[in-house]
């Protein structure tokens, strides 16, 4: 694509995200941005809004630190959508302007920036959480398996949807790389910001991008509306993924959204392999994200 700002190359840290958003703001008048909160370490959490339609769609990425490639896939596709709308061109075969007249898309491309930077850059001598992180990580400086935020809390186990059951199921009693729910729901600023933002915009549909598995989770304890299953089947058909009915999981963002609002919410597990997925998968992840985003906007 001519004049591309978001470069689909490794590694996509918070600094690159912020730089790309600034450049996109300079290039595209149609793009609105805002800060929805701050991370534990004080990083501003950006949201990008495109379109002016009555249907409010939300997509987020990188709830989990070592799934940062989802941020890059989403940002790449958002830029494609902006280009297509400006040039009155097609986005994945559909009329971009029409999609953005019907929908307002709001994206939070990196929910967990402190964690992403930890996975990509480690905990150097000056890192304010270095000592705790090394203990929580079992003494190793390899943080490639880190999913949590910088306080060792799994942000996708933080939401008030049968949180106590998730805590008891996880049996992780202290901070660590993954699966620690925290001491209570919404103790972490990143999760608080996502909950407040979601309540404020009252989204019609939400999707959280994760890796990996090529699966789409669409239900939650029967709270989902009837349209969720056929919607998930459409997303699956568009991406070649499998729509999966899940049990035995609580306290996730999409769980909370479904229970709170009784509207369609999805967890999308992009790609296939071992996290963090290799950058060689990026073209496929971008194509899948494009197909899924189009279907969310239809
Ligand atoms: Zn994940």
Q: In the residues, how many domains can be counted?
A: 1
State the CATH topology. Answer: Aminopeptidase
Low-confidence segments: none
Strand content: 15-25%
Distance between the termini: 24 Å
| Radius of gyration from CA coordinates | 18 Å
Number of strands: 10
What is the molecular shape? Answer: globular
| Strand line-up of the largest beta sheet | 1-2-6-3-7-10-8-9
Using the 3D structure, state the CATH architecture: 3-Layer(aba) Sandwich
CATH class term: Alpha Beta
Protein structure class? alpha/beta
Could you state the order of secondary-structure elements as H and E? HEEEHEEHEHHHHEEHEHEH
* Main beta sheet strand tally, sense and closure: 8 strands, mixed
Number of helices: 10
Mean of all residue-level pLDDT scores: 97
Ligand types: zinc ion
Assign the CATH superfamily.
Answer: Zn peptidases
Q: Into which percent range does the helicity of residues fall?
A: 25-40%
Task: Report on this structure.
It is a single chain. This protein is 38% helix and 17% strand. It is globular. The protein is built from 10 helices and 10 strands. It has helices at 14-27, 69-86, 96-102, 113-121, 130-136, 163-170, 189-201, 228-239, 253-261, 282-297, and strands spanning 32-38, 44-51, 55-61, 90-91, 94-95, 103-108, 205-211, 215-217, 242-244, 265-270. The model has no long low-confidence stretch (mean pLDDT 97). The longest helix is centred in the N-terminal third of the chain and has 18 residues, at 69-86. With 298 residues, it is of the alpha/beta class. The protein has a single domain (14-116, 188-297), classed as Aminopeptidase (3-Layer(aba) Sandwich), CATH 3.40.630.10. The structure holds zinc ion (ZN). It is an enzyme of class 3 (hydrolase). It comes from Paenibacillus chartarius. Its cofactor is Zn(2+). Its EC number is 3.4.17.-. Belongs to the peptidase M14 family.
């Amino acid at each position: 694509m001519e004049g591309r700002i978001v470069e689909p190359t490794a590694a996509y840290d918070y600094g690159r995200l912020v730089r790309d958003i600034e450049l996109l703001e300079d290039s595209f008048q149609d793009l609105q941005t805002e800060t929805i909160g701050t991370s534990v370490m004080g990083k501003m959490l950006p949201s990008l809004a495109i379109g002016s339609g009555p249907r409010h769609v939300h997509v987020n990425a990188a709830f989990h630190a070592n799934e940062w490639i989802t941020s890059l896939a989403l940002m790449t596709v958002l830029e494609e959508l902006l280009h297509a709308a400006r040039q009155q061109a097609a986005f994945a075969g559909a009329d971009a302007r029409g999609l953005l007249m019907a929908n307002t898309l709001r994206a939070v491309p990196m929910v967990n920036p402190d964690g992403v930077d930890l996975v990509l850059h480690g905990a150097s001598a000056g890192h304010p959480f270095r000592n705790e992180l090394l203990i929580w990580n079992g003494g190793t400086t390899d943080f490639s398996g880190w999913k949590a935020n910088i306080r060792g809390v799994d942000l996708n186990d933080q939401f008030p949807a049968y949180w106590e059951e998730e805590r008891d199921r996880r049996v992780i009693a202290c901070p660590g790389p993954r699966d620690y729910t925290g001491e209570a729901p919404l103790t972490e600023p990143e999760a608080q910001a996502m909950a407040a933002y979601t309540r404020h915009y009252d989204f019609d549909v939400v999707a959280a991008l994760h890796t990996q598995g090529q699966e789409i989770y669409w239900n939650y304890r029967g709270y989902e509306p009837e349209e969720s299953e056929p919607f998930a089947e459409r997303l699956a058909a568009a991406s070649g993924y499998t729509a999966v009915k899940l049990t035995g999981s609580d306290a996730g963002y999409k769980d909370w959204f479904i229970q709170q609002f009784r509207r369609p919410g999805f967890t999308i597990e992009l790609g296939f392999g071992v996290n963090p997925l290799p950058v060689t998968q990026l073209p496929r992840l971008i194509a899948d994200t494009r197909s899924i985003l189009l279907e969310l906007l239809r």
